[in-house]
Amino acid sequence: MYGLMQREPINLVSILGHAARWHPHQEVVTNTVEGGIHRQSYSDTYVRATRLANRLQRYGIEKGDRVGTLGWNTYRHLESWYAIAGIGAVCHTVNPRLFPEQIKLIVNHAQDRLLVVDLTFADLIREALPDLPSVEAVIFMCRGDDMPDVGGWARPVYCYERWVGEGEDRIEWPALAHDAASSLCYTSGTTGDPKGVLYSHRGNLLHAYALSMPDVLGIAANETLLMVVPMFHANSWGLAYAGPMAGAKLVLPGPHMDGKSIAELINGENVTKAAAVPTVWTMLLGHLRTGETGLDSLKEVGIGGSAVPRAMIEEFRNDYGVNVVHIWGMTEMTPLGTVSRPKPSMAGLGDEQLLLAKCKQGRVPFGVDMKIVDDAGRALPHDGRTFGRLLVKGPWTIERYYRSDESALTDGWFDTGDIATIDEHGFMQVTDRSKDVIKSGGEWISSVAIENAVMGLEGVEIAACIGAKHPKWDERPIVLVKRGADSQISKNEIIGELSAHLAKWQLPDAIVFVDAIPLTATGKIDKKPLRAAYGNCLLQ
To answer: Strands 114-117 and 137-140, how do they pair?
Structure first.
């Protein structure tokens, strides 16, 4: 027996259509690639997406075809997302920060027919095109006057604004199966080649609903949302859907993500909520410390991508009155997994205990289930001390990678590759990636715990902890530290501070000062080159 409700097909473009109909004058604001602030309404955004969709269909893009994008967070990129998915094609967001060979690998793996590209990446695409046999043409997200010189390019090149101008402003959006593919995002490749995660219209829609819940990010029509997290990073954390779904004002930074530019956008547009990885907020806080400006409108920031340092949470709260919400997830989860908001049962905890809880990755919303298990697959207790492999499942969690014949699940669960604890309040804390945990003399040492402690020290800009080979203990922790500007913090000072937080056997065997810490394309610390350079330093 089936329920007798209307069986309206799911198409993500209906989110933008809803915003255009019921929040028609709400703004989408962009700090553009060309320079300057661009404003348009949700109503105009929907019309332009419709025209682009018409033009894509006229070109010959069909259901299931992949269309790649290499773009910053802009109104044109937003329109492209909805236009491509709306006609039943697959929007493949390519991370332009990947190495050129990785970009070639994923574009060829996805077999993209078109590439929609920001001007910033013109040289990158021109050089890559001869090695991209599936790509038929390139569309530059710009006006005709701003088109780059494309003489001698290996493929036809078009102007985005001309395409939008050539499209009709009416379309009959296709009815799609609930599990129809909507978008494709590849993992950052920190442990090997990037792998494709193929999202569905249904999964993205459910994810956007969950993201908007008060206990998650609480996105509402009266909010102004600054979406710093890139649209090419883990599905933009779903914010490109949740913002228009709620009718919130959407502020997009384009390529301008330095501290000064972000501060100007927050204050100039009266931003109330924002989301980004910790490296962005490190730059913002560094700018704010100059005393040039404050954060009058900002109420809350969502931070994910890597563990949030305690010092960052305290500085936002104490100096600017901004609440930090710690978010955890992964590309394979669309990406929302947990959010660190206290529960009513935690009301009796003191300030220190609540702060420690906010440093954890947090608890699951409805739509995510998780557990920790030992190497034999046995479930482990939620006591906040016992750690094990973190497994997840739910309607927006991956079942298999794109073009893989094998399921990514074991008994219905996806192994995240994280080692974690879950406490009595249901708060999960990632203690390490399984590949990063340091095995020293039969004991496990969390590189994340050491990194967070060092990152909280004044004078440290960024730090990375790795396991170095040891003749007696198998592995021992060492810490690579980049000092902040004008900082003279010493090795002894760092060890002295760590001694207050860590057992003696957990203290690093070496502190190495470096000029830079390598980051991945998504802003996370890249430990592969650090292991290659320093992994044997204790043997020498």
So the answer is: parallel
Q: CA-CA distance, 520 to 192, in Å (whole number)?
A: 12
> In whole angstroms, what is the distance from residue 339 CA to residue 325 CA?
7
Q: Mean pLDDT in the chain? A: 94
The encoded tokens of residue 232 equal 């090419």
* pLDDT beyond 90 at 489: yes
Rounded distance, CA 363 to CA 384, Å? Answer: 13
211-233 residue pLDDT tens: 999 999 999 999 999 999 999 98
Mutual orientation of helices 310-320 and 278-288 as an angle, nearest 10°? 40
* Cβ-Cβ contacts under 8 Å for 353 (sequence gap 6 or more): 346
What are the helix (H) ranges across 321-350? Answer: none
Closest CA to 119 of 25, 18, 179, 35: 35
**pTM to 2 decimals?**
0.86
Residue 521 and residue 184: Cα distance in Å, rounded?
Answer: 17
Cα separation, 453 vs 494, in Å, equals 9
Amino acid at 500: A
Q: What is the pLDDT of residue 189?
A: 59
pLDDT confidence band for 536 (50 / 70 / 90): very high
CB 391 within 8 A of CB 413: yes
Dist. CA 398–CA 203, nearest whole Å: 10
Tokens 């305290």: give the residue. 314
Ordered by where they begin, the domains of the chain are 13-256 (3.40.50.12780), 335-433 (2.30.38.10), 438-539 (3.30.300.30)
pLDDT band at 45 (very low <50, low <70, confident <90, very high): very high
Residue with tokens 């994923």: 106
**Residue 273 · residue 297 · CB < 8 Å:** no
The residues near 475 (Cβ < 8 Å, ≥ 6 apart) are 438, 439, 440, 467, 468, 469
- Which one, of 90, 46, 97, 39, lies nearest residue 71 by Cα? 97
CA–CA gap between residue 126 and residue 297 (Å, rounded): 42
| CB 223 within 8 Å of CB 246 | yes
Query: Which residues form the catalytic set?
Result: 187, 332, 439, 444
The pLDDT confidence band at residue 318, using thresholds 50, 70 and 90, is very high
User: Given a cut of 90, is residue 307 above it in pLDDT?
Assistant: no
- Express each pLDDT in 378-435 by its tens digit: 999 999 999 899 999 999 999 999 999 999 999 999 999 999 999 999 999 998 777 7
- Give the three-class secondary structure for 333: helix
